[in-house]
Amino acid sequence: MRRALNKLRVSHTNTTKPEPPSQVPTMTASIGSREIGELVMVYDADGSLSGELIYITKKLLGFGHCAACTISHGTRKEKPEFTALKQKGWGVPLRNIHRDEMDESLDSALRGQLPCIAARLVSGEVLLLLGHEQLDKCSGDVPTFRAAVDSALEEQNLIMPPSNACGLPSDDTDAVVPEHR
Questions:
Q1: Angle formed at CA 58 by CA 53 and CA 60, multiple of 5 degrees
Q2: Number of helical H runs and strand E runs in the chain
Q3: Cα distance between residue 161 and residue 89, in whole Å
Q4: Contact call for residues 40 and 106 (beta carbons, < 8 A)
Q5: Which of 47, 119, 121, 170 reaches 20 to 30 Å from 180, CA-CA?
Q6: Three-state DSSP class for 98?
Q7: Which residues, 6 or more positions from 118, have their beta carbon under 8 angstroms from its beta carbon?
Q8: pLDDT tens digits for range 10-42
Q9: Alpha-carbon distance 89 to 85, whole Å?
Q10: Domain boundaries in the chain?
Q11: Residue 50: what pLDDT?
């Protein structure tokens, strides 16, 4: 019995020193590098008045269209279901901008692959989620677009901020609680 107590005392007193914080591996660094800060839909059109007129003219004459515009807008304004998706869709901001409104980091990361939807990570990195071909396949349908973005997020192992980690709506009034029988 005395021997067992001595072993216990020795093992307790011979503990190794903890590693300095800089050498301790952390999960938050790897998680944070894949965490989304915002989603950005970029239209293949300029946002100026002349840019809008050129886009409308080309569309009416059948010389082209922007799949992102078809998803987000009806004939005159933003689709209500797209507005709702922007407000409560993923728990991160979804911004829709024109190609002439891109900042330098978006412009260099996307290299003209427009229209598209991109993810800007909290680390600042920009990743292309859906290009023009994938957006075309959505055929202007917002739920199909949502499913395509969800699939792209999963394929690239991207995560939402911890506040939305469980995937529930941020507003409790919209939460659906299943009944238990």
A1: 95
A2: 8, 4
A3: 13
A4: yes
A5: 170
A6: strand
A7: 39, 40, 42, 106, 109, 110, 126, 127, 128, 129
A8: 444 444 444 443 333 323 334 447 899 999 999
A9: 4
A10: 34-158
A11: 73
> Which phi and psi (to 5°) does residue 19 adopt?
-70, 150
Give the model's pLDDT for residue 105. Answer: 93
Cα separation, 78 vs 26, in Å, equals 43
Cβ atoms 46, 112 nearer than 8 A: no
Give the model confidence (pLDDT) of 73-94 as tens digits. 988 899 999 999 999 889 999 9
> Could you read off the pLDDT of 100-156 as tens digits, one per residue?
999 999 999 999 899 999 999 999 999 999 999 999 999 999 999 999 999 999 999
Which numeric CATH code is attached to 34-158? 3.40.30
Q: How many residues does the chain have?
A: 181
What number of other Cβ atoms are within 10 A of residue 143's Cβ? 10
- pLDDT, average across residues 51-71: 77
Say what the pLDDT of residue 163 is: 61
Fill in the amino acid letter for 110. L
User: Which amino acid, residue 156?
Assistant: Q
3-state secondary structure of 169: coil
